[in-house]
Amino acid sequence: WLKKWGIADSYADFYGEYAQRSIEWGQFFSLDRDLARALYLSASLGSGAWGLSLEYKDYQNFNIDQINNPPTLVRERDAYLLNRQTHDLLADDEKGFQAELTYALPEGQVLTANYTTATRRNASGSADDENLRELFLHLESPIGSAIDAGVFVDRNHNRILGDERSLTFGALADWRATSQYDFAIDLQYQDVDRFFGDQAFPHENIFLGMETQHISGIAAAMQIQRSNDALETGAEIDGPTYWLSTNFNWQIDEHHSANLFWGKRRSGLACTAGTCYEVLGFDGVEIRLVNQLF
After folding, report:
1. Residue range 239-255, pLDDT digits in tens
2. Which of 39, 212, 248, 254 has its C-alpha lying 20 to 30 A from 158's C-alpha?
3. H/E stretch holding 14
């Protein structure tokens, strides 16, 4: 319909959903804080090289375990250190919005800016509100015909179930060395200030990952992590803690794979497709054989 208005090379998409846990016809489509309900709205706009997406959420007492999984409105992160900080949705009492702007340059570069906010309301009024604010900037660009590179910066202040501020930088390069081999390197740095009342516990995290893949389905990777977080599970008492690991994977066919892990695995949060889970720390050798039936 934009073309009918004479606006070419543009599109717009709008979507909304409202649900209640019980039928209260007198309060239907109500956002009363005492009503168990959820509201989700989204819009996508595009014109030429520009793209914009907007999302809004307002959830109250809508956490139904193993039944519903409402949109989190928190950007899914590929970067390891950012993934460990992903906000886990609290659908029992949370509202917020997410906006993302992208611009594609003619030479193949893509600029992305994402702003996310979430608020957990504990009681009437805003005096005890707990907030999340995050700004993410990312640039990805081809370098020649064989290298894809990207850099990002992320500023996060999360006061939901805690009080933590962080600034994270990262750079990634993927090199298609030949028609048979790919090589990738990933470097990330994170500066964190964690607060308990008036006490601050600053620390730094560093992540280095290297990986090579063969077209046959064989891959090898190495990760090195360093942190001086004194509250980290398994942290060294007298200095920084290191995690070094190697990983070998063989994709045998479409349904079978074999994986060998050797080293130390860092514990903490991990999120995939909007679902977050706790990763347990590990030190040793692990072998996995995976058979996917479907």
Report:
1. 899 999 999 999 998 89
2. 39
3. strand 10-20
